[in-house]
Amino acid sequence: MGRLNDQVIDYYDSKTQAKVPKQDWMREKMLQDYWEKGTQSRRSKEQWFKVNLDILMEHLHVLQWRHGCEIDEDTDGNIKFVSGVDEYSYDGSEFLSFDEKNSRWIAPVPAAEPTKRKWDEVPILNQYTKGYLEKECVVWLKMFMGYGKEELKKHSPPDVHLFTRKSVTDHSKLTLTCLATGFYPPDIEMRLRKLRTSLPEHLVTSSGVRPNGDGIYQLRKSVDIVEDDKALYDCYVNHGTFREPIIIEVKCSILLTNKYFLLPACM
Questions:
Q1: In this structure, are 241 and 184 located in the same domain?
Q2: Nearest 10 degrees: CA dihedral of 67, 69, 70, 76?
Q3: Distance CA 241, CA 225 (A)
Q4: CA gap 108, 96 in Å, rounded
Q5: Same domain? 182 vs 135
Q6: Is the pTM of this model over 0.70?
Q7: Is 262 part of a structural domain of the chain?
Q8: Number of structural domains found in the chain
Q9: b/e sequence 18-35, b meaning 16+ C-beta within 10 Å
Q10: What percent of the chain has pLDDT over 90?
Q11: Which domain holds residue 216?
Q12: In this structure, are 50 and 80 located in the same domain?
């Protein structure tokens, strides 16, 4: 998939075997020739992946490739190349990465050494990779930013919910969960607190910021608590769309039991 500032702008998989737009502005701005050439390029890369996976694997394994560039834009609109990335991972671990400053491949594991030596023996390949990252990638990035500038400016505030359920690991406790969903950009601050004091992160289970699949994001944090203490907890959330942070508390009401006792009930 192609990503621009955390937004998916195009997509390809082995089932459809077609590069397709994921943003309306990409569909409107890019000519059909772009999608046809992109489809052929992705199909070629798919075949390249299959060949290399056959070399690497005996059972089920995953080879991933990530490449792109980062730029800086001054107040006058001038673009400056900052850095480029072209890297491969195998089964979730680093396998090969390109050092664009020195035009060479880095092999962090012994298994990658043969591939590193083979690729470094083809100077034109390294020159092309460096040129793509520093020049062609920047041209594409600048063009996409221009086409999608209105969409990229859009921000979406999170919906925040705080709720409890019985703990699955300790039935004498509750699991308190804070969920923020539907937000963009993905930068967000969330803290579970007791008596306004943030809980240490090593005590909290976090999903990490995850994409919802539609260009927005979600984050979930949980902690097991004593049921009688749940009214002492809250969830502190701050996002770029807020004028000030919000604090969600566990809501409590007073219930009248059949024995005429008043009891607090917290949702």
A1: yes
A2: -160
A3: 30
A4: 7
A5: no
A6: no
A7: no
A8: 2
A9: ebebbbebbeeebeeeeb
A10: 46
A11: 159-249
A12: yes
